[in-house]
Write a structure and sequence with these properties.
Blueprint lengths: L13 E3 L4 H9 L5 E2 L14 H17 L6 E3 L5 E3 L2 E3 L9
Parallel strand pairs: 1-2, 1-3
Antiparallel strand pairs: 4-5
Length: 98
């Protein structure tokens, strides 16, 4: 955004389905006018799930959870995972675990 005014505004409201400060900052840097609504989705890996499938599934679940609230809007969702030798590492419980 430039000052308090977004550079771009869509015809439908734009909602970021994530509490991620990095995703929020990215959309702000693009100059987009958007709201944030954190999706209530359980972030667990399914047995045998590949990393790419995991992040795609979570992004879709987050978008659907927010979109299901019935408001006429565009919902943006994404997810990331840290992967080591095809093993998805979960979110650390605290800074020491990180």
């Amino acid at each position: 955004m430039t000052g308090d005014k977004p550079l771009f505004r869509s015809r439908l409201p734009l909602t970021l389905a994530s509490g991620s400060p990095r995703r929020r900052r990215f959309l702000e840097q693009l100059g987009l006018d958007f709201a944030v609504e954190v999706a209530d989705v359980e972030e667990r890996v399914l047995p045998g799930e590949a990393p790419e499938s995991f992040v795609l599934r979570l992004a879709v679940e987050k978008a659907r959870a927010v979109a299901a609230k019935g408001q006429d809007r565009v919902v943006v969702a994404a997810d990331t995972a840290v992967v080591l030798e095809d093993d998805i590492l979960g979110k650390p419980a605290d800074p020491a675990a990180a």
